[in-house]
């Protein structure tokens, strides 16, 4: 049971003033459903604004507050921006530029003839001045807007900086008193504030100590939880699985296994034969051949008379795994089924029956495969693809399904630097596929200035003449997903104009059916070009797609670029990746792109990326999906994880039941970071 002190943090956001049905969705998009989420919604950065009397006083690139009079609304046709032409007291013009839906609000907020305070970053656009998506607009009768230092929060459509700031302030007022879980000596040495103060400071300004403390809390919670899992796993009995090799012998693979694959399969086979449940991670770069290793593991389970499940992070990926495995299993007599959230009615019923009576040997699916209604006759092995998208907690939910704890094999293609493996996977055993299958061609990677985009489009046209397909990855434009999608749609429109109907678009806001339909067209070769935001990062496997264009490549992390690039180079044809870069690049950005050209080794890229970025960014970048952490940045993980790990180990050695004073505090920490599955593993927890 969650300690009472934490209850106020877990109350739904609805209790905050101003949160009604309209704000719920935008908040949800950011993962903000409870008070605690809002309190932990930390600023990306802070802007220091300068109030200026007129635009002559301001420099291009500066964050300013200025009073402007609206002269004209200028809508452009189609998907172009909406511009509000304004004038300062000296008659200098400045365009306020809006894309997408924001235009509607702008129209209302900025009536022609009225004077407004406007806060934002002054940019130059051609010969004229502009502010793109001003951060604040308010009536000029009120006092000038915004403090001089202001937090900039990640936003979603329908939210403004002002709104979110207000909600955060309310959430911070509701913080309870919590006991200290950090070892006093460490707290002292690091000069970290207590938990409440750390949260307040982190919203007030770029206080590194406060941010570090909050990150450390998260790392400590994670380390502790993983140790609890390990401790409990060791004390449990699973079902030893000994396969006789009969099914594996029936596989007709068109290739010989690599040494790394054979070694990994042997390691897994060794684990499965043990009575204690396997907890193993299979790490292998994109294209390293993890699927056949997973299949071999599952066949061992089936040979031993049990069932196996493969859990994929997305519906598309589940489908693709299912198709691949089904083909590989032809002629073996092994029954395989696909179960996703979209299966309803009869079809679903019959799969559920098959799992219950054991006529289905292997099931592939999304998290739908561990819903309550799904029961297995004898589930003995769970394979989890891209485990970080689930986290260990969900894995344990699944683990509780069988009578015995199933063996677990997690697979990841995210090249994680060695230092981070521990953070992500705790104390799991690791098999590494460090050898690519033979015959892979290097992907010809080039860095091209965006000024040459017309040449790139020309190259695309020639590429299509060869009958091959291509990807076009659109940039992450700004802080908000909406803007990214607007940019992708604009690019899609121009490419469609050039190449006609067989261009398809995929992005995160499409309905799943529409997304799947586009993907299917592309996979079937009926569409030549797939334009996408980064949603294609995990998933698609189309060997005939041999060209990838990535716009504003400098904005992506190296690990992410590597993942994206891994979508090409899957067939026997030579593949190319064009990294479009902006006009002005920082030295680091230049080095990072050069590294992409130089190597295709994901592990090396990950290590060097960490090096290159060093402590450069004050607040650290949010690493979407790369780590199981919401607060801790990569740099903080590097710096603080070893400490957190040692601290957790020490605490476990002294008080493995978490029953002393610090142990009790640590329990609260586990609940706070929703690692309470860790607590539940404690006897009587
Ligand atoms: P991963 O899941 O690790 O990204 P896959 O399992 O999808 O990689 O394998 C990528 C491609 O390589 C597939 O087309 C697969 O059939 C092929 N492949 C796997 N193992 C080998 C091998 N030993 N030799 C040749 N090709 C292989
Ligand atoms: Mg794979």
UniProtKB/TrEMBL annotation:
One of its GO terms (biological process) is DNA repair. Keywords: ATP-binding, DNA damage, DNA repair, DNA-binding, Helicase, Hydrolase, Nucleotide-binding. Gene3D superfamilies: P-loop containing nucleotide triphosphate hydrolases. SMART domains: DEXDc, HELICc. Residues 271-433 form the Helicase ATP-binding domain. GO terms for molecular function: ATP binding; DNA binding; DNA helicase activity; hydrolase activity. NCBIfam families: PRK10917.1-2, PRK10917.2-2. This is Probable DNA 3'-5' helicase RecG.
């Amino acid at each position: 049971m969650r300690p009472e002190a934490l209850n106020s943090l877990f109350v739904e956001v609805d209790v905050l003033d101003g949160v009604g049905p309209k704000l719920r969705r935008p908040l949800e998009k950011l993962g903000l459903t409870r008070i605690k989420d809002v309190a932990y919604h930390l600023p990306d950065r802070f802007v220091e604004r300068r109030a200026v009397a007129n635009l002559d006083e301001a420099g291009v690139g500066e964050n300013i507050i200025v009073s402007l009079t609206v002269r004209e609304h200028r809508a452009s046709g189609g998907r172009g921006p909406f511009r509000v032409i304004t004038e300062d007291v000296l008659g200098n013009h400045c365009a306020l530029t809006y894309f997408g839906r924001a235009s509607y609000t702008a129209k209302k907020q900025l009536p022609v003839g009225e004077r407004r305070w406007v806060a934002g970053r002054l940019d130059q656009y051609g010969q004229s001045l502009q502010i793109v998506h001003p951060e604040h607009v308010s009536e000029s009768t009120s006092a000038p807007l915004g403090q001089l230092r202001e937090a900039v929060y990640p936003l979603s459509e329908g939210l403004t900086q002002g709104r979110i700031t207000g909600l955060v302030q309310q959430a911070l007022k509701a913080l309870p008193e919590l006991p200290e879980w950090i070892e006093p000596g460490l707290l002292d040495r690091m000069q970290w504030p207590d938990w409440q103060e750390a949260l307040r400071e982190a919203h007030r300004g770029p206080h590194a100590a406060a941010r570090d403390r909050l990150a450390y809390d998260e790392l400590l919670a994670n380390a502790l939880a993983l140790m609890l899992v390990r401790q409990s796993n060791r004390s449990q009995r699973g079902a030893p699985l000994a396969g006789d090799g009969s099914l594996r012998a029936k596989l007709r693979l068109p290739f010989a296994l690599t040494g790394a694959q054979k070694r990994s399969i042997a390691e897994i086979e060794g684990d499965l034969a043990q009575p204690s449940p396997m907890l193993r991670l299979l790490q292998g770069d994109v294209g390293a051949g993890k699927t056949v290793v997973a299949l071999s593991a599952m066949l061992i389970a089936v040979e031993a008379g049990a069932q196996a499940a493969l859990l994929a992070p997305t519906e598309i990926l589940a489908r693709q795994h299912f198709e691949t495995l089904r083909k590989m299993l032809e002629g073996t007599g092994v029954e395989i089924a696909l179960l996703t959230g979209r299966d309803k009615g009869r079809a679903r019923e019959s799969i559920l029956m098959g799992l219950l009576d054991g006529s289905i040997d292997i099931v592939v699916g999304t998290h739908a495969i561990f819903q309550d209604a799904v029961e297995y006759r004898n589930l003995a092995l769970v394979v989890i693809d891209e485990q970080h998208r689930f986290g260990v907690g969900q894995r344990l939910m699944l683990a509780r399904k069988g009578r015995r704890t199933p063996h677990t094999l997690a697979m990841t293609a995210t090249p994680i630097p060695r230092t981070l493996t521990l953070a992500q996977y705790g104390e799991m055993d690791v098999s590494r596929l460090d050898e690519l299958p033979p015959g892979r061609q290097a992907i010809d990677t080039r860095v091209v200035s965006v000024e040459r985009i017309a040449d790139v489009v020309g190259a695309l046209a020639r590429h299509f003449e060869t009958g091959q397909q291509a990807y076009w990855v659109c940039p992450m434009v700004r802080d908000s997903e909406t803007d990214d999608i607007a940019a992708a749609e604009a690019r899609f429109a121009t490419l469609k104009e050039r190449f006609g109907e067989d261009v398809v678009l995929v992005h995160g806001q499409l309905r799943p059916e529409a997304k799947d339909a586009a993907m299917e067209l592309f996979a079937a070769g009926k569409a030549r070009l797939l334009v996408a935001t980064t949603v294609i990062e995990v998933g698609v496997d189309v060997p005939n797609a041999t060209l990838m264009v990535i716009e504003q490549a400098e904005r992506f992390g190296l690990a992410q670029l590597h993942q994206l690039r891994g979508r090409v180079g899957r067939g026997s044809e030579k593949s190319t990746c064009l990294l479009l870069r902006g006009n002005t690049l920082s030295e680091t950005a230049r080095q990072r792109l050069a590294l992409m050209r130089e190597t295709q080794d994901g592990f090396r890229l990950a290590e060097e990326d960490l090096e290159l970025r060093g402590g450069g960014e004050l607040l650290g970048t949010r690493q979407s999906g790369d780590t199981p952490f919401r607060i801790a940045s990569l740099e903080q993980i590097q710096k603080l994880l070893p400490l957190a790990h040692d601290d957790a180990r020490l605490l476990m050695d002294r008080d493995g039941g978490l029953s002393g004073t610090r142990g009790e505090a640590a329990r609260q920490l586990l609940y706070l970071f929703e690692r309470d599955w860790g607590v539940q593993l404690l006897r009587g927890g």
